[in-house]
Design goal:
By secondary structure, the protein is of the alpha+beta class. It folds into 2 domains: 55 residues; 137 residues, Alpha-Beta Complex (Nucleoside Triphosphate Pyrophosphohydrolase). Helix content is 38%, strand content 28%. Strands 1, 2, 3, 4, 5, 6, 7 and 8 form an 8-stranded mixed beta sheet that branches. The chain is elongated and about 60 Å long.
Length: 206
Amino acid sequence: MSEPAWLLMGRELRAIAQTGLAFSQDPYDRGRYERIRELSAQLIAQGANADAAGVLDLMGLDAGYATPKVDVRGAAFRDGRVLLVREVSDGGWTLPGGWADVNQTPAECVVREIEEESGFQARAVKLAAVHDYRTRHPQRHFDSIYKLFFLCELTGGEARPSEETSAVDFFARDALPPLSLGRTTAAQIELMYKHVEHPELAAEFD
């Protein structure tokens, strides 16, 4: 899925500025990188019809070498139906998941997210896909994101919503509810079904 030029350029300029500020000690170079970050914020704000100062504040929250964020999603099944949770934030349904945490492996992260958001205990069985957010989702995002999709096996627990989720349920392949498309798409759920049906499939990646 194509993204607007202002977002692609703004995101890359932000990364150049952030990395430059992380490694440069020269005050003149640092001033140049600060200006690049300001221009990046203005470009993104203009394209998104947002407040440039607010965008710049968001950019200032990250430091160090600029690298994509990591999101993990777990696909678990029961009687041929996929486990989904309904997000409080937008009312859409999604595979359980979220940002990966420091000092946890990707598998540990997805197991934690499933339990936190759905109430079910699980174990990660297979890495099914690694997707670049911008190539797979209709929504635009401020950050560069890699999404890791795991097939998981439920081992215990029971359906229990959380602060982030308002409902937990299992859905048939041909009867999916309205999805939170910034988190999970129908095509990604279909891919998880294919991996269940064909365990020999290699992980898909962008």
